[in-house]
């Protein structure tokens, strides 16, 4: 559903974007939503559709071998666009980037899209995949409660070593000439999962460019309006989970 | 160094590919090498250069903020091509794919490259990143010996749940119409790390298309010649590690 449809000229079906992702948490679908919202694109979202869950499960069913145009996706998010289905978060972003005007034009900067993609992949590694692995260090198919001891150890390493490493990296990127003052877009739920730790790191003053950039992104007109809308779902038991015992004391 | 240089017309420096990766193990650099070797491209490789290690460390130094064309990479592999430096394994492959003719031509299949990229990302997740995490489930910066108990638990889950899941997925992809008989390229070191487990899964007959595809790729002229050359390094203590205690009994 796009609550914006009424405000805009109707997009033809062949050009419409359809996001297929689990309802209930922002999850990995959120990276796609933020790109679509920033660009003001019209899209539907299974997270807000009555039969959304069914669309997701049938897409990733063991029985789905895809069709002549598309291999089957392993997992959501997927983007349906015309007759095509594209999967894997950074891949969808790379597909959308030029279409939504979110990456440098190839005639001006032939490798800009690859630089954006490398930053996207690095942000997804350190600020999305690793925070997920913190609460599921042993087995993704098992309950958190069954791997809590290991999760505590991994959380300590994430807070003390990994998160500062990634923040320092992005601080360095934003210090470099290629960042052009920081046009790139990355937003994260790490501060939901580890509020005390993030507050401490922010207070250290070592990652000021990163946190300033984060505020700038949150304040962009379309992103701000999205975050305040009912299209934005709450963090809860998805990738980013707030277990106080995994945060700083 | 390219031992093939003598056999070919000399590539001009501005067009030459330079792979920057740790010497000593195939590692993530291997995915890039296989693409370059399959295409018969000329390239240099820091893994075979006397000062290769220094090139890698200076590239990923805390002091490197990149230049006006390039943000700094977080980690190798990186590809230097003319004035550009591209990082992140799947990103480099996506950059090389069209240049080396390893992805469908955009005029015939506008989204072929995105489908190849989604399969690449999935293969890297399940057959490269996860096997690495098996021997380092808690902290990448700590010794294996300090997280051996957790590694045993994670290895059990990987062998019994994750690896079969990814093999079943690729079997499904290869069963689908979009695979066109299996032109795509993915090769892995999982059978080095978990030889007994892989032998068992192979013997089950459930993943015949995957293993047949693997043999086909290994038998391709350029890949075969590469694997037999001194450009190919041995697996040892990199991503793929053979700890008998982490394999099936």
UniProtKB/TrEMBL annotation, chains A, B:
Cited InterPro entries: Glutathione-S-Trfase_C_sf, Glutathione_S-Trfase_N, GST_C, GST_superfamily, Thioredoxin-like_sf
Coiled coil: none
Residues of the GST N-terminal domain: 16-104
Protein name: GST N-terminal domain-containing protein
Domain of life: Eukaryota
